[in-house]
Amino acid sequence: FAGKTYRFRVSNVGISTSVNIRIQGHSLLLVEVEGSHTMQNTYSSLDVHLGQSYSFLVTTDQPPQDYTIVVSTRFTNPVLTNTAMLHYSNSNGVPAALPPPPGPTIEIDWSLNQARSIRWNLTASGPRPNPQGSYHYGQVNTTRTMRLANSRVTINGKLRYAVNSVSFVPADTPLKVADFYNIQGVFTPGSMPDALSGGPAYLQTAVMASNMRDYVEVVFENAEGSVQSWHIDGYAFWVVGMDGGQWTPASRQNYNLRDAIARYTLQVYPSAWTAIYMPLDNVGMWNVRSESWGRQYLGQQFYLRVYSPANSWRDENPIPKNALLCGRASGRRTRPL
To answer: What CA–CA distance (Å, rounded) separates 14 from 259?
Structure first.
């Protein structure tokens, strides 16, 4: 209907490719990213990387015609495109006289600058009792820095992908179950290093050890020629910085410590880095993985073990009574209640 404002929520649920969305003759007013209210910036198009979700408002304030909605792949050759129609109820099927909206350039800088422009709305609250900005993430001292470098490697003559030279292989028992029952030999806490060592790549059921209440800085480094997309189960985090080239401690001088967006999925551009701040306030065994399914399957993932010695139901719910116990946990009991 003409004169209305509609909310679009767009999610990239693909397995390998970033996409760009745009609507002929209309602007996109960004309002939400993965559960966070954003500053309401206006864009002509939006890049949506693997696993990411965006909400934007579109106002039907143009002449009553039919307008093309275009979605195209980013950083691919060839560029694949699909279209839909934004139909004004009183258009009588008349196509818009405007040219179809062109896609963005293939330059990385365009996408990088757009990503940097997405900011947290510090005064919005939604269902929260306090505004989002009540938590001053930039004023908390980090207790640890993790540097995670993805790579394409060959192990035993086969293509694999790795993080800090470790290519993940699944264990014969779910890691959280093995941790709960203290089953030895399934995984080793600390088998995922904090930084790239420079040694040859190898296979490992990689688990990074960490402690409840730590406040960590994680730097994702991408020396490859394709955009990487990462997801961390169980956590939201603040994307405090991203840039091209090599990350150094001096890169912290350009961090956004005031209104960086809090989200669950991040992108790392080719020959670039992305840094996040994350409070480890959720006990468990959490998967950190590439959102590219091929890379994830061939080893670009690991688990983050967030440990608390308190073993309290305050920090973590007990194992469900109906939990399926397999592998080396077969035959064990869950709990009486």
So the answer is: 29
